[in-house]
Amino acid sequence: DATDKGEFRHYMMKEIYEQPKVISACLDGRISETKVLTSCFGAESGFLKDIENVHIVACGTSYHAGMVAKYWIEDLAGLPCSVEVASEYRYRKVAVPKNTLFLTLSQSGETADTLAALRMAKELGYLTTLAICNVPSSTLVRESALTLLTNAGPEIGVASTKAFTTQLTALLITSVAIAVENGLSAEKEQELVQAMRSLPAYVSDALSQDAHIKVVADRFANKHNALFLGRGTMFPIALEGSLKLKEISYIHAEAYPAGELKHGPLALVDEDMPIIALVPHNDMLDKLKSNLQEVAARGGELYVFADKDTDLNNEENITFTEVPKVDSILEPIVHTIPLQLLSYHVAVVKGTDVDQPRNLAKSVTVE
Ligand code: AGP
Prior knowledge:
Elements: H1 11-17, H2 19-27, E1 53-58, H3 60-77, E2 81-85, H4 86-89, E3 100-106, H5 112-121, E4 128-133, H6 139-143, E5 146-149, H7 162-180, H8 186-197, H9 199-207, H10 210-220, E6 225-230, H11 234-249, E7 252-257, E8 274-278, H12 285-297, E9 301-306, E10 318-322, H13 331-350
Parallel strand pairs: 1-2, 1-3, 3-4, 4-5, 6-7, 6-8, 8-9, 9-10
Helix pairs in contact: 2-7, 2-9, 3-7, 3-11, 7-8, 9-13, 10-13, 11-13
């Protein structure tokens, strides 16, 4: 029952812990042992082969999910993909190339700017409109030509958690489905589907760091600022981590692609500025390590989230949190979990209203 907190003190924590289950529900019936089942887009899945471009529009956390999908769609399908916040998209002249898919992301399906963007897009000659949404009866679902439900179940905490990771799961399914029509080999598809099948178990593993993260959070609670760094798909996850911290703990947090450090934010780094680094295990690892050295050299206190094979560890000035080692396509999803736990525990230490943070509404239905 969604309205029962069960053993948890807050809905947010309950929803964080539901993630292995709801990610399974999102994958259920959408992948086989070897393939993405395109029937999940409904009877009209023929649109997949016609897509030449993708425009993704959303707000807040849902926008961050869209930013991850841009990396996946361009990497796996080789198609151009742009991502924009709905409140900007709806007030400008948008150039729509031939055969462009208009894709919205929304937990509630009632966000005013996202709905307005969809209504505008319907006049602009898109190939079709697809909503990735959590609420089957929502306006967004009703007004979109196609829907892929995230199946996260009701999300009550204002800070979005399970809605985000299921959006990413649904976007991964969608990205692979588009890629298959654009030359992705059956072998690679099978490899990606196998990775997806192991996702719920990896998310459970990531949750097992909860007690450690609670200790880390104690050290964090007296900070006034924080800087999140990531590269590649970890950059949108850094943005999402910083949004979570702002929303429920009221700590000012910024996120940057780590390569941008020298272009300005490095000036902020001193012993009072904690840096949260999301370390991917791919060809960007060495580049990120050198960004971390730049921070350490300026006395910055580093909180590193990485898998154990990255050779990073607790050292002076480095607090290490282990994240399960996974196929790089899954990294943005799995790395989200410790950041949710961090912001949750910081908020609890600070005594804020975790489920109902000040000034915020669960669904922004007015502009
Ligand atoms: C997330 O923690 C926020 N509360 C907020 O950014 C939210 O994601 C945004 O308002 C979009 O909502 P939607 O997904 O329901 O459209």
